[in-house]
Amino acid sequence: VFTSGFTSVFTSGFTSGFTSVFTSVFTSVFTSVFTSVFTILVDGDGYINEFFVKFKEHFLQAGNAGVVNAARELSDSVNELMHLTIGAQADQCQAMVRIYANMLGLSRVLARAGLLVNDARSIALFSATFNRAQELFDFVDAADKKEGSDFKIREQFRLFVDLNQCRHIFLAGCHDTGFTSMLTPYKGRTYRITFIKAASFQRDFEDLDLPIKDLPSVFKSLPLNSTEPLDTAITKAVTTISGTTTPCKHYQKSPSKEPVVDELFKPVQITESFTGRPDELFSSRLPPLGVINSREYIPIDKEGQRLDTYALPPTQDAFDEYNSWAKKHEVVPVD
User: Fold this and answer.
1) Which residues pair with 43 in a beta bridge?
2) Which residues are paired to 212 by β-bridges?
3) What pLDDT was estimated at residue 117?
4) I need a labelling partner for 68 at 20 to 30 A (CA). Which of 14, 84, 325, 329 fits?
5) Contact status, residue 86 vs residue 167, Cβ threshold 8 Å
6) pLDDT over threshold 80, residue 159
């Protein structure tokens, strides 16, 4: 009886403890592998202008750190919306941002508005820093083809809208009514889709009965100083560039003569003065130009071979200076 009871208690306790530990480990592994996300899809051709207006006002003085702060502001703003949607469960989710834009045309348009330097791909520095700001943040060049950004956003939307790990989709593309046909089957699904409003918001999206939210700390509701839609302006900018320059096969060179610098906006021009030796110091020691080909000015030996002017050997200090320079520039000596 004692043995039977002991075995029963031991087996029960072992099974209970093993089950508890196994459940805890499995839950931890499952949670780490299948972390839920909420996705923010941004059509950069229509929304980045407002983002840059806000960025210029609040984050410019911080340099590259300002781009990181802007990315964090976007993440925090959407996190607040997620808490309003699903409550405390939002703490278990990660923000995934996908921005698609025509960088060539967008850089040109933002330069005309005074938000970037006049360089064909001046926005590339911003996008690179933005990508490093958060693990799941991507600013992608959709190339200069028409509706390149629209195509990428549609496919990303179709991927995430039926994905169980995606808790919610925030769409920042309400300037383009072309998305309404894609969204019509999801009309009224307030638990799944939310629109991000901007200055170029189209009223057709209100008919889809989906939430429309503002992110005033990220997207300022002020359009660029232009009388035409940004998409049209970008298309014209690309046409202008491609019509005046011959692009490289792999990279569109800038028509601008400004240097590429590690700044988003116009750099401060610094002029340096340098005073060297006057030209007369050297020209006065040269023979007259009219007789420079005469043999009497060229020393030769008895065999008729030219004799070069004897030069004194360099000093030890000069040797040390040269060796230091050669080591720094990895100069390979030639025998």
Assistant:
1) 100
2) 195
3) 76
4) 84
5) yes
6) yes
Q: What is the CA radius of gyration of the chain?
A: 33
Evaluate if residue 160 carries a pLDDT over 60. Answer: yes
Higher pLDDT, 55 or 256: 55
- Residue 138: other Cβ atoms inside 10 A: 14
Give CA–CA dist 62/72, Å, rounded.
14
Q: What is the 3-state secondary structure (H, E, C) of the chain?
A: CHHHHHHHHHHHHHHHHHHHHHHHHHHHHHHHHCCEEEEEEEEHHHHHHHHHHHHHHHCHHHCHHHHHHHHHHHHHHHHHHHHHHHHHHHHHEEEEEEEEECHHHHHHHHHHCCCCCCCCCCHHHHHHHHHHHCCCEEEEECCCCCCHHHHHHHHHHHHHHCCCCEEEEEEECCCCHHHHHHHHHHCCCCCCEEEECCCCCCHHHHHHCCCEECCCCCCCCCCCCCCCCHHHHHHHHHHHHHHHCCCCCCCCCCCCCCCCCCCCCCCCCCCCCCCCCCCHHHHCCCCCHHHCCCHHHCCECCCCCECCCCCCCCCHHHHHHHHHHHHHCCCCCCC
Q: How confident is residue 252, by pLDDT bands cut at 50, 70 and 90?
A: very low
Place of tokens 């820093």: 129
Mean pLDDT taken over the chain: 71
109-152 pLDDT per residue, tens: 878 877 777 777 778 888 888 898 888 999 998 877 777 888 89
Return the axis-axis angle of helices 123-133 and 103-112, rounded to nearest 10°. Answer: 110
Give the residue among 169, 149, 151, 148 at the shortest CA–CA distance from 160. Answer: 169
Full-model pTM: 0.57
Write out the two tokens for 48: 């980045």
